[in-house]
């Protein structure tokens, strides 16, 4: 059955018609009353056009190839050329039909809004050039909120990253996944660890791995902490410590102390009180 001879296509509707003489399928767009010829066959429709409201998008599989003016490209037989296996993301625009071979992947979806103190971890899946950088497949970066993320076919959303709140007397221990320069401008090597002591929300970069959240030791006039250096470094008090060196941090140094990544806590030391009859 080739379908009815007269097809009434409503506004913002379309249908696919196959020309059996040329074996070419074309699109007929409403509003119109279409009279089918004997050598023509109704393939699909009438179907409603794809409507994308503001702040929404959709993904089209096997999109039609277009020229410089944005019009579909056809071959010498009049068949619309499509980009097989490719995808195209379309945003707010006038309602449009699907050409033969095109498919709507999923449904029309709202754009993703990234809240404050959160970010999207993005991964490049094919080489492209954006406004600032040349991206190659495998690159990862963050899209920090607040903002609206505009998707691209070259980018894959890996996960949503939430900021970690650093409270007073706390620190965040981080480890570098690869060599990079951190937010403070310090060059980090792969495997290197350091502490972030600034109070507030901290959003780890893609090159940073969160090891743990550390809490400070509270020092009193009767309690100190016994530390040992695992390598030669300069501590937070500006003193150079040699590997294997041991020392005490007392109330005279600070009221609280968060052990550095190169400081090993041997234990807490309590004050020894002697009476007049002890030694």
Walkthrough of the structure:
The protein is mainly beta and 279 residues long. Helix content is 0%, strand content 51%. The model has no long low-confidence stretch (mean pLDDT 88).
List the helices and strands and how they pair.
Elements: E1 6-9, E2 13-19, E3 24-29, E4 32-35, E5 40-48, E6 50-52, E7 56-61, E8 87-90, E9 93-96, E10 103-110, E11 112-114, E12 118-124, E13 128-129, E14 134-135, E15 140-144, E16 147-149, E17 155-162, E18 164-166, E19 170-176, E20 180-181, E21 187-188, E22 193-196, E23 200-202, E24 208-215, E25 217-218, E26 223-229, E27 233-234, E28 240-241, E29 246-249, E30 256-257, E31 263-270
Antiparallel strand pairs: 1-4, 2-3, 2-5, 6-9, 7-8, 7-10, 11-16, 12-15, 12-17, 13-14, 18-23, 19-22, 19-24, 20-21, 25-30, 26-29, 26-31, 27-28
Regions with pLDDT < 50 over 5+ consecutive residues? none
The class by helix and strand makeup works out as: mainly beta
Strand order of the largest sheet: 3-2-5
Please give the number of β-strands.
Answer: 31
Largest sheet geometry: 3 strands, antiparallel
Number of helix segments?
A: 0
Question: Percent helix among the residues?
Answer: under 10%
Radius of gyration in whole Å, from Cα?
33 Å
Task: Measure the end-to-end span.
Answer: 112 Å
Which band does the percent of strand residues land in? over 45%
- Per the principal axes of the C-alpha atoms, what is the gross shape? rod-shaped
Arithmetic mean of pLDDT? 88
